[in-house]
Design a protein that fits this description.
- There is one protein chain.
- The protein is of the alpha+beta class.
- Strands 1-2-3 form a three-stranded antiparallel beta sheet.
- The model has no long low-confidence stretch (mean pLDDT 80).
- The protein starts with a helix and ends with a helix.
- The protein has three helices and three strands.
- The relative contact order is 0.04.
- The protein has a domain of 36 residues.
- 30% of the residues lie in helices and 8% in strands.
- A hairpin with a 4-residue loop joins strand 2 and strand 3.
Length: 113
């Protein structure tokens, strides 16, 4: 015997049972509710800080430029004294000791001419 017709008949019986049970459970429900409204819970939102708008002010103009000439500086010229300073001779350009002076300046020859 084949089991195929048996399985098919069991499947059809199950589908018929489900269809009959849903039709048997079909009914009309009428409900009357007398509810008391409950006040909703109101929670204040967290405070939010809103910074004021920044105020931009133009910077003041720079102070005017005042030119003041520097006062003149007067410096006395150094005292240049040509001649003997102790053991050295200053001719206005360089120092000579006695030996160098007599070697380079032949004053004796000038007067002998």
């Amino acid at each position: 015997m084949t089991k195929r017709p048996l399985r098919l008949s069991l499947f059809l019986a199950g589908v018929a049972t489900l269809a009959a049970s849903t039709a048997a459970m079909a009914r009309v429900d009428v409900d009357v509710n007398l509810g008391v409204p409950v006040a909703p819970v109101v929670v204040a939102p967290a405070p939010v800080y809103v910074a004021p708008r920044p105020v931009y002010v133009a910077p003041p103009p720079p102070p005017p430029v005042v030119y003041r000439a520097a006062p003149p500086v007067y410096v006395a010229p150094p005292a240049v004294i040509v001649g003997w300073h102790g053991d050295r001779y200053w001719d206005g350009r360089r120092w000579y000791d006695r030996r160098e002076y007599h070697a380079w300046h032949h004053h004796d020859d000038y007067y002998r001419r």
